[in-house]
Specification:
With 491 residues, the chain is of the alpha+beta class. The protein has helices at 3-15, 19-40, 44-48, 56-62, 64-68, 78-97, 101-118, 125-137, 148-152, 171-192, 195-199, 202-207, 217-220, 224-239, 243-246, 249-269, 275-283, 289-298, 307-315, 326-354, 362-365, 423-434, 438-456, and strands at residues 17-18, 167-168, 385-395, 400-402, 460-471, 479-489. The longest helix has 29 residues, at 326-354.
């Protein structure tokens, strides 16, 4: 074998993806979208309608370009949001079972992006990564295994079903892996610039904020040695990120397991929304074929061919060659490679800009939040200031009431986390605290007035909002500061 052949073989071995890994990746992404929609649904009125915290007029004022790209912003009523929620659910279900997979993936991506653009204030790194993974998915054969599409085409199942073609070696496959790797590398570089990570105190700062600790996190917050060890352990795992592509076989599986364990620990201790789950799903394509061989030998492959599944599939219209015009289909591989190459170049340039290796022209960033270019989760230093909201409403009769799910007292609540109704509310209220846009704060006060009237059948004369900031100090009690947002007159 020549040197050039050995290099090509090594690259193909490291940057190709098993078709079964893509199938598992498909199911995981679709399931996360469904979970995300379920978590957003209870707050649909508050976050996505004109009766909520960001009516369309304010959306277009703060985000004039992004707001116009959202189908969810076409109408301001709850009925429209429910219609689009339902449409995205149908698309995600079709994607999960692999029915017209590429079309279902495209519809899921469009529905998710439209929803995210309806209220950009609510977004975090998990939302950004989920979008990107779905975009790469459009260029990959996610429905080649464990899918309705595969069964309707009569493709065989089992460990040796694909033979030599069981792995996908393409620019799109490489791009998907590089996209995930870029997240970890960029985050590791940014963390390396923070003193708290080198000192081993980053975990103590992060878990010192009661507003973000959930489940086991409240217990872990008091375990100094475990937090210090966990800080250094996560740094070591991040430093090993290049092994996700450089290693093969069991070594790669071990690296994937280390990252997955870290993300699982985050899900069990911190309020991060779907971010840990998205991150675990993103690791599936890195798993080598030996893992999927073992899985198929352990789990009876006939499960997917159950009688119920077969009857359901038989009732569905044949998938055929899809709904794309023949002129588009005929471009096929060449067009896909060109798109993958452009996306891969974009990933490299965008992430290089995110860690300061190059500067992008203003025209490329005017419509994008600067945070979108950075995978700066808990970096370069973890956020050390949390706190709670004090929302004091005064009724027409002069009675003092709590106008939100927080507290009407400046005293520290027993559980700060409980004052935030959900992860999305935490993200929104954190943005509200940090945002220089006074209109957002004014609208929050007006929303509280309207919300109280709807839920209680009465009315408030005014609402006063104060954020009580609690800054973690390792050498003494937390510093507490008051940040008054001012008073909103109701009516």
């Amino acid at each position: 074998m020549t040197a050039a052949s050995r290099i090509r073989w090594a690259l193909a071995d490291r940057f190709s993806v098993d078709r079964r890994a893509l199938a598992a990746f498909r199911v995981a992404l679709a399931s996360i979208v469904l979970l995300d929609l379920a978590l957003r649904l209870p707050d649909a009125t508050a976050f996505y309608t004109d009766a909520g915290v960001l009516p369309r007029s304010l959306l277009l004022e703060l985000y004039p370009t992004l707001g116009r790209l959202s189908a969810h912003a076409l109408f301001g009523g709850l009925w429209w949001q429910l219609v689009l929620f339902a449409a995205t659910v149908v698309a995600a279900l079709a994607m999960a079972v692999g029915y017209r997979t590429r079309l279902a993936t495209a519809a899921t991506l469009l529905g998710l992006v439209s929803l995210q653009l309806r209220n950009p204030v609510l977004l975090n790194a998990g939302d950004s990564l989920l979008r990107r993974l779905l975009l790469w998915s459009l260029l990959l054969p996610l429905g080649a295994r464990w899918s309705v599409d595969a069964r309707s085409r009569g493709q065989p199942t089992g460990v040796d079903a694909d033979g030599p073609a069981r792995r996908v070696a393409s620019l799109a496959a490489a791009g998907l892996l590089v996209q995930v790797l870029a997240v970890y590398v960029a985050n590791a570089v940014l963390k390396a610039r923070g003193d708290a990570w080198h000192a081993g105190t980053a975990g103590r700062y992060a878990f010192g904020m009661d507003a973000v600790t959930v489940l086991l996190g409240d217990w872990l917050a008091g375990q100094t040695l475990l937090l210090t060890a966990g800080t250094y352990a996560w740094l070591v795992v991040l430093a090993s990120a290049p092994l996700l592509v450089l290693a093969t076989g069991r070594r790669r599986t071990g690296v994937v397991a280390a990252f997955a364990a870290g993300h699982l620990a985050m899900a069990l201790t911190l309020r991060l929304g779907v971010f840990p789950l998205v991150s675990i799903a993103a690791l599936l394509p890195f798993l080598p074929s030996s893992v999927w061989d073992r899985l198929e030998r352990t789990v009876d492959s006939r499960v997917i061919g159950s009688r119920f599944f077969e009857r359901t599939v038989d009732r569905l219209p044949a998938t055929g060659r899809g709904l794309l015009p023949s002129a588009v289909r005929d471009r096929g591989p060449g067009f896909g490679r060109a798109v993958a190459a452009c996306l891969l170049a974009f990933v490299l340039v965008w992430n290089a800009a995110g860690i300061g290796l190059l500067a992008l022209p203003p025209a490329a960033t005017d419509t994008v939040d600067p945070e979108e270019r950075r995978w700066d989760m808990f970096a370069p230093e973890p956020r050390a200031t949390g706190g709670w909201y004090v929302t004091v409403g005064t009724t027409d009769g002069g009675e003092r009431v709590d106008a939100f799910a927080g507290t009407d007292s400046l005293e520290r609540p027993l559980d700060v986390d409980a004052t935030y109704p959900s992860h999305r509310w935490y993200v929104y209220l954190t943005h509200l605290r940090d945002s220089p846009a006074p209109d957002l704060r004014e609208r929050f006060g007006a929303y509280l007035c309207e919300r109280w009237s709807r839920q209680n059948g009465g009315s408030l004369a005014r609402v006063n909002v104060t954020f009580v900031a609690s800054t973690v100090r390792l050498d003494g009690p937390d510093r507490v500061d008051r940040m008054p947002f001012g008073e909103t007159a109701c009516g």
